[in-house]
Specification:
The protein is of the alpha/beta class and 194 residues long. Helices cover 25% and strands 34% of the residues. A 7-stranded mixed β-sheet has the order 2-1-3-4-12-11-10. Strands 5-6-9 form a 3-stranded mixed β-sheet. The chain has a two-stranded antiparallel ribbon with strand order 7-8.
Length: 194
């Protein structure tokens, strides 16, 4: 499938996500403005600091543009802070922090520990064993009935999907293994109006 996947490039490890996508033959586009978003079929939302990213999405006018594209069934994969921004409820976010309410999960920021408590664990996923890199990772505290759990860590969901939205607590872009990005690409339904 010939798709263009945008990588939200406001903050975080967006370049590493672009490299993973390019390594599996996908054309990428850094998304910083609503005009950039118009060029893509799907979107990667990387990790970073979720409240800062929320503010940057507002100041760049991307928040309403992304919301509209999600409502039109654009496929989105959010990792770490990206997952927080896609969630329905941020349990410990700033008062002014917004989310897209795109996947029916409640999350708690940094709940797997501080930076010094970062860790890696092998996870069972739809693409087989995958190394999950957890850095100040959010915890999914509840999921709605329409959410499919694709991977768990000690009984807690860490990779979930609902319709066109995929979300991970961990950083798949830091492993050198692009299979999870390839899996995301395989789920993309193209809805871009040309």
């Amino acid at each position: 499938m010939n798709v263009v996947v945008g990588v939200l490039a406001l903050q975080g490890a967006f370049a590493a996500h672009a490299e993973c996508l390019q390594s599996v033959g996908v054309t990428t586009c850094e998304v910083r403005t609503p005009n950039d978003l118009e060029k893509v079929d799907a979107l990667m939302m990387p990790g970073g600091e979720s409240s800062t990213m929320s503010q940057l999405l507002e100041s760049s006018r991307l928040f309403p543009a992304i919301s509209a594209r999600i409502a039109d069934d654009m496929s989105v994969f959010g990792t770490c802070a990206g997952m927080i921004l896609l969630s329905t409820h941020i349990l410990d976010g700033r008062e002014d922090q917004k989310s897209f309410s795109a996947i029916d999960i409640s999350v708690r920021r940094n709940a797997f520990g501080r930076q010094v408590e970062s860790f890696e664990r092998e996870l069972d996923t739809p693409i087989g064993q995958f190394l999950g890199v957890f850095i100040r990772a959010p915890r999914i505290e509840s999921i709605g009935p329409g959410v499919e759990v694709l991977s768990s860590l000690d009984g807690e969901p860490v990779l979930v999907r609902q319709g066109n939205i995929l979300a991970a607590s961990f950083h798949p872009e830091l492993t050198g293994d692009a299979r999870l990005h390839e899996y995301f690409v395989s789920t993309i339904s193209t809805t871009r109006k040309v």
